[in-house]
Design goal:
The structure holds 2 protein chains of 2 kinds. Chain A contains 11 helices and 12 strands. Chain A is of the alpha/beta class. In chain A, the strands form 3 sheets. Chain A has a 7-stranded mixed sheet with strand order 2-8-7-6-5-3-4, with helices on both faces. In chain A, strands 9-10-12 form a 3-stranded antiparallel sheet. In chain A, helix 5 (131-139) packs parallel to helix 6 (161-170) and helix 9 (308-317) crosses helix 11 (360-381). Chain B is 30% helix and 24% strand. Chain B has helices spanning 14-22, 41-52, and strands spanning 2-6, 31-35, 55-56, 64-68. In chain B, strand 3 (55-56) and strand 4 (64-68) form a beta hairpin. Classes of the chains: A alpha/beta, B alpha+beta.
Chain lengths: 386, 71
């Protein structure tokens, strides 16, 4: 078996050593329920408050504006449905980009199922929203909430968040920004009313989501979320918090924040190398997303005539872990809605995403092996020379 | 005149592969109509046309995609 090279940090980054250490310490010291009144519970509450304070500082919010949820998906659902309910008097339209994470889109489907409406804003071939369409969309009457992903989780293209936020602010529409791709890696542009992120994307453990709600933002979570007010006030929920994981998430974010600028530059150079080399060494490949204005650690490309699932398994056999937006690799057997919105090739698709442990040698080995792997799959499918 | 290429029941990338094999065998200016029920075909057939400088002539019906040979 060749050396294992993990290149799927955009799904979940390896646990940061600082998080590993903090997790073990908190398992011993922070397992009590922070809502109780005995001394062990008060100790747990101190740990929770410290984690909340550390993450709030990095995100540029006050601690009372920050809540830990049972994962990024949960944070997204609460943000969309709570943001819409809080503004029900203003209207029932939810404006979002066509390339939001499925967690945001699924919450939008729930909103439609309960009588609301959505307006999806398209993107160009590089995966960037049509800003004039966004500006017109948020200006229409009855818009309760708008949501924009800060950078695409599939193709890395950075979105014009500041301009989109200005358009929202001009008409008093709150903006929800999904910053899961950028938190811990690059600064998040200002102007949002709500922000969601996920600890496992920045090197924290899975099962910790972050929801920031700026004070003054109308927010009313649906009763089906069963989110008790004391939990909300304490900064967690719905349900009891996984405090050791939250403590570890904060330790990871502190650590990655300190090295973020240097790591972003290093990883971005490696991504440039992948983008340039793949386009030259693999015939009939479409490298997608914005080559320059993008998240630092991610690149996506599609190989003509190649089955995405077969490519993923062939790479795995050579030790490379990547993900794919091809339909054959999805549970729904539909191509990625992001690739669809961009109008780019969806089969033979691979997303490569880097992290702090990714080395130049690993990327060189990937780039050395990829052309042969693709050529072999094409030869076996009998599509050489088409 | 339109040549029909029935790829129903075949998953992507097979409809695109069949199209790539068939198109060079029709005359320049002629149209191949691909029938495909894999939802990825709606994306991948126009993308293939763009990459290969052929004309995507639209979808006359759900699950049908017209491609005109330009070269």
């Amino acid at each position: 078996m060749p050396e294992s090279v993990y290149l799927d940090a955009a799904t979940a980054a390896p646990l940061h050593p600082a998080a590993h250490q903090a997790l073990l310490a908190a398992l011993a010291d922070g397992w009590a329920d922070p809502s109780r009144l005995y001394s062990r519970a008060r100790r747990a509450r101190q740990l929770l408050d410290a984690a909340r304070g550390a993450i709030a500082e990095i995100l540029g919010v006050r601690p009372p504006e920050l809540t830990f949820t049972p994962g990024g998906t949960s944070a997204a659902h609460l943000a969309v449905l709570g943001g819409l309910r809080g503004r029900a008097r203003a209207g029932n339209v939810f404006v979002h980009s066509a390339i939001e994470h499925s967690a945001i889109l699924h919450a939008g489907e729930d909103h439609v199922a309960s009588g609301g409406a959505t307006l999806s804003i398209g993107v160009d071939r590089l995966g960037r929203i049509d800003l004039p369409a966004w500006e017109a969309g948020v200006r229409t009457s009855g818009v309760a909430l708008a949501a924009l992903i800060a950078a695409s989780h599939e193709v890395a293209t950075v979105q014009p968040v500041e301009a989109a936020a200005a358009a929202c602010a001009a008409v008093g529409v709150p903006l929800l920004v999904d910053a899961a791709v950028l938190v811990g890696r690059a600064p998040v542009p200002p102007g949002w009313s709500m922000l969601v992120a996920s600890a496992r994307k920045w090197g924290g453990p899975p099962g910790v989501g972050v929801l920031a709600i700026r004070s003054g933002t109308r927010f009313d979570p649906p009763s089906t979320a069963h989110w008790a007010q004391p939990e909300r006030n304490a900064g967690y929920g719905p349900g009891a918090p996984d405090l050791p994981a939250i403590v570890a998430a904060a330790a990871a974010l502190r650590a990655v924040y300190a090295e973020a600028a240097a790591e972003a530059e290093r990883q971005s150079r490696l991504v440039d190398r992948i983008r340039d080399r793949v386009a030259v060494t693999v015939p009939d490949v479409e490298v997608v997303g914005d080559p320059v204005d993008r998240a630092p650690h991610m690149v996506t490309f599609s190989c003509l005539y190649v089955d995405g699932e077969a490519l993923l398994y062939a790479l795995d056999r050579r030790g490379f872990a990547v993900s794919s937006g091809s339909s054959c690799t999805s549970s729904t057997l539909r191509p990625s809605h992001v690739l669809e919105a961009m109008g780019v090739l969806s089969h033979g698709n691979v997303r490569v995403s880097l992290h702090r442990e990714t080395t130049e040698e690993q990327i060189e080995r990937f780039l050395a092996e990829l052309p042969g792997i693709v050529a072999d799959l094409r030869e076996r499918a009998g599509v050489t020379g088409l | 005149m339109t040549v029909e290429l029935d790829c129903r029941g075949k998953r992507c990338p097979i409809p695109v592969i069949e199209l790539a094999k068939r198109l060079p065998r029709v005359a320049v200016g002629e149209v191949v109509r691909v029938l495909a029920d894999d939802p990825a075909a709606a994306l991948d057939i126009p993308a293939w046309c763009r990459m290969r400088d052929q004309e995507y002539a639209g979808s006359p019906a759900p699950g049908a995609y017209d491609v005109r040979r330009l070269r």
